[in-house]
Amino acid sequence: MRKWVLSGILASEETYLSHLEALLLPMKPLKAAATTSQPVLTSQQIETIFFKVPELYEIHKEFYDGLFPRVQQWSHQQRVGDLFQKLVSQLPSPKFLLSLIHLTGAALLYKPVDRVTRSTLVLHDLLKHTPVSHPDHPLLQDALRISQNFLSSINEEITPRRQSMTVKKGEHRQLLKDSFMVELVEGARKLRHVFLFTDLFLCAKLKKQIGGKSQQYDCKWYIPLTDLSFQMVDESEAVPNIPLVPDEELDAMKIKISQIKNDIQREKRANKGSKVIERLKKKLSEQESLLLLMSPNMAFRVHNRNGKSYTFLISSDYERAEWRENIREQQKKCDFSLTSVELQMLTNSCVKLQTVHNIPLTINKEDDESPGLYGFLNVIVHSATGFKQSSNLYCTLEVDSFGYFVNKAKTRVYRDTTEPNWNEEFEIELEGSQTLRILCYEKCYNKTKLTKEDGESTDRIMGKGQIQLDPQALQDKDWQRTVISMNGVEVKLSVKFTSREFSLKRMPSRKQTGVFGVKIAIVTKRERSKVPYIVRQCVEEIERRGMEEVGIYRVSGVATDIQALKAAFDVNNKDVSVMMSEMDVNAIAGTLKLYFRELPEPLFTDELYPNFAEGIALSDPVAKESCMLNLLLSLPEPNLVTFLFLLDHLKRVAERESVNKMSLHNLATVFGPTLLRPSEKDSKIPANPTQPITMTDSWSLEVMSQVQVLLYFLQLETIPTPDSKRQSILFSTEV
Asked: GO: which molecular function terms (predicted)?
């Protein structure tokens, strides 16, 4: 085995020496010409280009001449360690080798570094087959140590520069941006790591690590930036269908993630062995990776002018815009050349160059890192300045949750202006969020004029920016004004945070004359109705003009409109229906949600809430149905009739899912906690006042359970009423 390993290095040394000879061949005539009146290169240039090449040749020639006869006269006791020791101790400095590569850009001059890598591998192999008792063993170990130190110092030299190799004209090919992304390949979602270099866009896959080997990338494809386009080259090319993952599957993953996090915390408190925690962390990593793979569904397409198109799936328009901007900016100033050898070297260097080392999972966060905010963030989008010309403008807000960003709110379109004054307030629910992003768009009403990107008509992004949600700064519960600058545009915002334990308190109203915060039985008795007037009015208005509104009940309404409607209903204003007809339908949906959220006791009652939570956890479907229906029919009459009225309405909303994008599951997510969350005395809120912001994952589990209860009733075909007493209640309503 030792002889075979050494025969291999002899053959490659022979090739290397012939390369060095090829370099030395023109050196003598060039040196001679440098002293004449018409030099091809100056003496200084020759000195730079051929710096230390003769010395390198001598070192390797001596090594080859020493090794060749020993391999020829091979015996088990033959020693070669001294030759390797001498070779690696004569290596030039890493700084010299790197300056050589960067100065000339010649692929040949990368060889010295390559040789050390090769020698290191050979030394590993030799040591593997050299008994510890063999006199060569300590010598080979010493040579290996020297060459490994050399390689790590090369890496230290490269890393600060964040560059891998040269492009033509001696410019550096640098890594500008990299990130994990989901690629759509023949209908399947694949996790990729994409790298944007100064002259190309490279899509790689992380190879599976086998037996402790270091990370390696496999290049799937690349596009030179000079050939990259966001427009489809061939209009006839079909836009691939995006396979959507049902919300209930995504939620099941979130439930699992919350449960595993809970288990990890429990194990840490119990000081159990680290093996258990490691196993749980592995499970958590698998679940979070799966969620990140399955959740994005916004297409980001790149096309190669000379060939294929590729589709990525992204969860945030902000990120999609960022990638496009970075690529377009670079396209203005790049040219391109890449050989297959360079491509391989570039792909190998990605491991060293990557800036994003981990998929954005909570598993990769340190224990002392902020887990993010849980609760409600009120955001007022005041106004914006800095637009060059008058246009129709609106903003959207995104926050992160479970490692990716989702769109949470959208202002109205402010028409024909350079200084929009939206002054709209939104309430956004935060689930472990750390960042708030804002995007400003120009609304395009004439779709034919718009250039198609990604094969779909889009409104144009005018600017984007973000702020970090700092738990310390937001702790004091007061409004905080801030200005976000983006591409010359400035947007004024105010933000206020309410942590979960404060935001989820059901606050009984002090006065019993209104409807908000007043028990449902008191309101229906006063109104002589089976279902409160506010519920009927809101549902009627939404069914009249909101059934096709995208994100109805999910998208926040303007807080000031909701408060105005709340006040009007509380004083029984006769003009409330006129007010509603003039308001944005999302404000009406927000008013209905607020009514149920502010009930002093949930619609499903404090008394029965624990039973519903236990019933939904039953695994036998027959027992579950019997339990859930009996519990439902045990609700007080106003609660039951109001719930059945709302249930029918929500089912009708979900029938238009293809237009409004609100599935039964989406609606259950919005309304579950609102209808079921118990009032303060029965809630399982952690009573630790020192942690008002970062709530535990048991919260998430409780919320998920509330969602599941409502979803169960939404998915039942019909709700039978077992006794005639109930029958008469249901069918004698005025509703």
From this structure: GTPase activator activity; guanyl-nucleotide exchange factor activity
